[in-house]
Amino acid sequence: MPSILVLHGPNLNLLGQREPDVYGAITLDDINQQLVEAAAEMGIEISAFQSNQEGALIDALHQAEQNADGVIFNPAGYTHTSVALRDAVAAIEVPVVEVHISNVYAREEFRHKSLLSPVCMGKITGFGWRSYLLALYAFKEIVFE
User: What residues contact residue 100 under an 8 Å CB cut-off, 6+ apart?
Assistant: First the structure.
């Protein structure tokens, strides 16, 4: 059974209470549960990890090489600043889809540039929590077909 690591970056543990006008009312646990249920129907196993620490996210990416067939990654604020996360994504053979809950292009200018996009398989942004679900479908239809 194929497996996907869902990797959540900084401040996403505050979903449901943090800027609900931008991120909605859904919690991180709710997102993870929705993904587990959808993945089970597709015959895919999901594991999820969230950290506010850049190094922990890098470690999770490195471990994904042995433990996952794909990564759905919301690097959150690190998207625009972390060369180290970009290098970690580039260093692994596992395909990574970058996701964002909000439409980063409709927000502040600094959010328009992702350091990770060039080393990811694709990017899904602006569909709320369903950005994660769309990434899951992409893996099922494109990678695991």
Answer: 74, 79, 123, 124, 125, 126, 131
The SS3 call for residue 76 is helix
Q: Model confidence over 34-55: pLDDT tens digits?
A: 999 999 999 999 999 999 999 9
**How many whole angstroms separate alpha carbon 24 and alpha carbon 132?**
14
Is 23 considered catalytic here?
Answer: yes
| Residue 23: domain span | 3-143
Q: Say what percent of the chain tops pLDDT 90.
A: 83
Rg (the chain; Cα; Å): 14
Catalytic residue among 8, 23, 78, 132: 23
Structure tokens at 114: 């992702």
Q: Which of 8, 78, 100, 132 is catalytic?
A: 100
User: Domain holding 52: CATH number?
Assistant: 3.40.50.9100
3-state secondary structure of 141: helix
Q: How many domains does the chain have?
A: 1
